[in-house]
Structures are given as C-alpha cells and as structure tokens.
Amino acid sequence: METGIPGLSWDELKLKGFKVHELSASVDVPVRTGRRDFYKMGLVYGDMTIDQDGRLVEVKGAFLIFVNPAVPHSIVRRINRISGYACIFTESFISSREMKDSPLFRVGDSPVIPLDSDEALFMQGIFHKMLTAYNGDYPHKGDLIKSCIALVIHEALRLQPSQQTTPLRNGTGRITHLFMDLLERQFPIERSNDPLRYRNPQAFAKVLAVHVNYLNRAVKEVTGKPTSTHIAARITAEAKALLKHTDWNVADIAYALGFEYPAYFNNYFKRVTGTTPNSFRKV
Asked: How many other CB atoms are found less than 10 A from the CB of residue 54?
C-alpha cells in the first residue's frame, strides 16, 4: 500500500517506523487531500499554499511544517522547485502521549513556522544529522532520530509558542476548546475492541458537566458549526483512515466507531460519503 510519498510504501514505514529524506526539487509530489496515518515534519525552502482543514496558509522562503494525520490536508505547489528535508514517522515510533501533548501536533495550531536565515541554518543541521543517521549503519539510529525530532519540536515551540496556550477569554471559548480537545483525544483508534466512547453531543455534555444546549450554542458561536457536525466529520475521517490503512473488516470498524450493528455503519457511511465502506476501500 502506498503512502502518497514517492518512494515510500506503507509496509516499509510500518516496519521501520520512520523515514528521513531530502526533498527532490524535480519530483512532482502527488497532491492529495485527506488523512494519512503518519506524522510528518519538514524543513522546506519554497513557495506554496497549504490547505489545512479548509484553512489556507501562504508560505514563502524557509519554514518548518508539521503534518498531523488527524487533520485533512493537502499541499499545493506554487512553483515547480522546492528543497529541504522531511522526516516521516508513525505514532508508534514516538509515544502517543508525547505526540498528543505536543502543541505543534494539536489540531488547532498553525502547521507552519517561518524561519529567518540563522534559524533555517540551525534546523538544516538537525535534519542533515537525521538524514545521515538514517542512511548510515549506526545501530541506535532510531534513538538518535527520536532525539532530533524532540529537538526540532522544542526549538519550534521556542520560536512560535502554541496558539492554544493563549488564555480563553470567555466561557463559550473555554467549553469549545474542552469539547474539541476531548473529541480529538479519542483518536486515532488503535484497537477494534476498544470502541469510541463519545459519539453525540449529549455524551460530550455529560463529561464536560454542562447542559447539551449550552454546549451546542457555545460550539456554534465559536466555530460556526454545530457540535454534531464536528463529531460526524471526525468519525467519518477516522472511518476512512481505518478502511484505507488497516486490514480490519467492516464489522470491526463499525464496532470500533461505536455503531451497534455493521448495517448502521454502512448506512451512515453511504449517507455521508455517497459510497459504501467496501466500495471506498477498493478505490
């Protein structure tokens, strides 16, 4: 199974847990919107537009980019040539808690951090060290690359603190943040026998100790979308990821997503996407 990255198969990534490569200026990387089941961080020199979950980010020059598999994204080239480095890794390569606790990998933050010439030169040294280790025969290259990833994250946080560390000014903003965080912490689903706990606004409201009407009003006021829309979009994204990136049967995926019967999941998926789970998996 292909990952959408030239020269990298999903089987290879699962086996090693990580890959480091230099960006090719001449290769036209396929533009693809949707979730991929790996994290990516890169040092890029170029000019492009990044569409992250419907938010367009214009970038030019040197910048760091962080890709979270929970957020549908695509990268649109604005010029034919770019350069830089990329490090791709599975969630199992670095602990789930470390990934989810890092502000740079949270859903609400900008995926891009611009760099000046000195910052770019420093980051280039780190990525070059990762690439050298990856291509070498050092027996502990995995540990070395983990340390480099941690260093990049901490340097990035120093350059641009998380947007989500800004105090929330009112109750609606706070409850919306708590809702979005609780929703996201349920994913990705790693075991088919550990089903989704919260699937509707009532369940989230109960955990957050607020009335469901208040939760709905707050989320709609802050995000412009109803609570149920956020939940449905996230469940649908997870369903697509499980269909594409696991060998679980449709019944297991249905139960993992909290559907009581596979038929309910089939009907839901077809209503939302216009196709059946089995047909989507074959595309």
From this structure: 8
